Amino acid sequence: MNSRIFRALHDIAVKVGGVLEPVELARLIADRARDLLDVNAVAVYLLDDAGDLLRPIFSSDARDDDPEQPLPIGVGAAGQALLLGRPVAVDDLQAWPHASPWVAARGVRSALAVPLTVNDRRTGAVAVRTSVPRQWTENDAETLTLLAAQIAPPLEAARLHDRTRAARKQAEAAIKLRDEVLAGVSHDLAGPLARI
Predict the structure, then answer these.
(1) Distance of CA 39 to the CA centre of its chain
(2) Is the pLDDT of residue 12 over 80?
(3) What does the alpha-carbon distance between residue 126 and residue 47 come to, in Å, rounded to a whole number?
(4) Which tens digit of pLDDT belongs to each residue from 120-166?
(5) How far apart are CA 95 and CA 91, in angstroms?
(6) Quick check: 87 pLDDT over 80?
(7) What is the biggest distance separating any 2 CA atoms in the chain, rounded to whole angstroms?
(8) Model pTM score
(9) Where do the DSSP E strands lie in the chain?
(10) CA–CA gap between residue 87 and residue 64 (Å, rounded)
(11) Apex CA 56: angle with CA 154 and CA 61, to 5°?
(12) Is the dihedral of CA 71, 46, 11, 139 positive or negative?
């Protein structure tokens, strides 16, 4: 393994500490993957809570007016990587039967994707894409797998942090509502009880 990969892995390990924003984590891995693998685009997907769609949290070739669409499991290189639990290399995406229509419409010619895995549980996928035909190597798949392994746990921690924050807000709203109801009931009962 070359020193560029080691430096990238070290850089990611140092930078992810304390970062709890999934998009920032995804951008970090995308930048490193683009540099190391010499690709045009990188996308990071997380499995939704229902477990049936991969939602893109970062896609370097998406635009505000044309965002990348969620992928059903098994669709696209990322959907296949998640389904199979291993790297998926597509040398000719335009002829591949599992191609994502959104990706194919952008003229992508080759794609490589690997699953994001935390504690043997697949949580998403990372995909890299090129606009020229490419024969992916075992080294390419290994590099992307290492990058994905480095970023999967912090992405899962960020997701759990977001979920906990949302649950806390819900609980605080419920407590506030309870207090308002009890204050109203207490006020409504104060008059009649005083007469007794």
Answers:
(1) 19
(2) no
(3) 11
(4) 899 999 999 999 999 999 999 999 998 998 888 878 876 665 666 65
(5) 9
(6) yes
(7) 88
(8) 0.77
(9) 41-47, 53-59, 71-72, 88-90, 110-118, 121-130
(10) 29
(11) 115
(12) negative
Q: Are the C-beta atoms of residues 122 and 85 closer than 8 Å to each other?
A: yes
Coil, strand or helix at 57 = strand
What token pair was written down for 19? 């970062």
pLDDT above 70: percentage of residues in the chain: 73
Query: Tokens 């070290």 appear where?
Result: 10
What is the side-by-side order of every strand in the sheet holding 71-72? 71-72, 53-59, 41-47, 121-130, 110-118, 88-90
Mean pLDDT for all residues in the chain = 83
Which H/E stretch holds residue 51? none
pLDDT of residue 112: 98
DSSP letter string over 147-168? HHHHHHHHHHHHHHHHHHHHHH
φ/ψ bin of 85: left (φ > 0), alpha (ψ from -120 to 50), beta (otherwise): left
SS (H, E, C) 73-91: CCCHHHHHHHHHCCCEEEC
Give first-to-last CA distance, the chain, whole Å.
85
